[in-house]
Amino acid sequence: MPKLSLSKQQKSRNPSGYLLGQIVKAASKNVLRAKTVSRKDLAFLKLESERQELQLRTAEAQARVAQEVAIARRIETAKEVEIEEFYNYSGEGLIGVKSDGESISLGGGGAGRRISKRFYRFRGNTVLLVEMVVDSTAAPA
What is the pTM of this model? Predict the structure, then answer.
């Protein structure tokens, strides 16, 4: 591919054309690079993808635990706590037979859904006092 040199004046006159050219150039490099990827590279990319997915699931689990701990701490410090839980389980199913004179059709289907929600209402706040015990016989650090 021949190299084109643009002056600053040309770049400033048509910045969108310049940017489009840069995007095309980068995309063509990526296409050429993709053709040279070996099976070894693909295996590495697959392992990297699985590692990142595992990290994401771990981070989501840690976030859920942190959220539950925060709620528990807020419950401890509230004067009044109202917790409302809402569960809705619903399902439906169907089965049918259809005949048009020449053939018979038999079918069935089903669907289900589960909704669970928790609502917390905190009123007031209490102060948790932490008692500190000091050993007067211990030497200063």
Answer: 0.43
